[in-house]
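Priority: medium. Attachment 1 of 2:
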């Protein structure tokens, strides 16, 4: 773990902005070096190209084995899974892949969405993605896919600070998507209500950051994690990081999508 410089935060073990890279500057080439993965080169079995689809409420982001540029497609409340498949196939025409990984913004069980997403169209539950894409397809929660991309061994807890609170736990390479957001935290409110976007708006950045530090330390201790990766769009607002935590990056979702096809990375059923 990186050590904090001497100063008021040193004794607490809290990292400051000087200790960590700006997540907004992390390029695909930098990600190869920093995370030991090979984005743009095969990270799976020989000859198995993977198309990774990161589905969000604003954009769909695409990257495939051998490609160096992330492709973005607008999404939104009218995006159904059929429309997703049509838009993706149009955008990747000519790309070579034989497997598909999908990061889904909702609850996934046994590789299938079981709840319709809040910010997209309907029809996701029960949709056959493998049939639609014509090749083997794995669907996981989007936070779990990003978690897998930031994994460096041991017991890792991932917390995604965005509209809500995404979470996943990886133990010795075994991915376990979690739903910690709606567990009770304080005053009858949940973790998500304190550290999600609603909490940021309600408390302001400074108080919200203190809650993030507290929640991170509590969940890290409760789950026995060796370290925590903080991802999601709001993680960059943190001026300090709790002990044993580091910032993730949204590009990790693609590395996670590639890693889904490694045998040890398959989510527990």
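Attachment 2 of 2:
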């Amino acid at each position: 773990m990186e050590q904090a410089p001497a100063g008021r935060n040193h004794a607490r073990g809290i990292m400051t902005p000087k200790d960590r890279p700006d997540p907004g500057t992390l390029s695909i080439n930098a990600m190869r070096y920093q995370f030991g993965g090979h984005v743009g080169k095969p990270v799976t079995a020989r000859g198995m190209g993977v198309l990774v689809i990161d589905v969000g409420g604003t954009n769909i982001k695409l990257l495939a084995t051998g490609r160096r540029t992330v492709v973005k497609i607008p999404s939104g409340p009218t995006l159904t899974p059929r429309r997703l498949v049509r838009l993706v196939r149009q955008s990747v025409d000519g790309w070579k892949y034989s497997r598909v990984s999908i990061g889904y913004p909702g609850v996934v069980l046994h590789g299938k969405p079981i709840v319709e997403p809040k910010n997209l169209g309907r029809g996701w539950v029960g949709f056959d993605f493998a049939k639609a894409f014509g090749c083997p397809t794995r669907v996981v929660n989007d936070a779990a896919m990003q978690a897998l991309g930031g994994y460096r061994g041991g017991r890792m807890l991932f917390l995604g600070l965005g509209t809500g609170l995404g979470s996943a736990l990886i133990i010795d390479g075994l991915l376990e998507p979690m739903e910690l957001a709606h567990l009770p935290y304080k005053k009858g409110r949940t973790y998500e209500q304190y550290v999600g976007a609603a909490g940021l708006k309600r408390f302001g950045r400074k108080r919200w950051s203190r809650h993030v530090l507290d929640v991170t330390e509590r969940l890290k201790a409760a789950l026995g994690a060796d370290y925590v990766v903080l991802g999601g769009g709001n993680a960059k607002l943190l001026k300090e990081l709790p002990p044993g935590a580091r910032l993730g990056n949204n590009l990790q979702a693609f590395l996670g999508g590639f890693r889904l096809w490694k045998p040890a990375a398959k989510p527990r059923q």
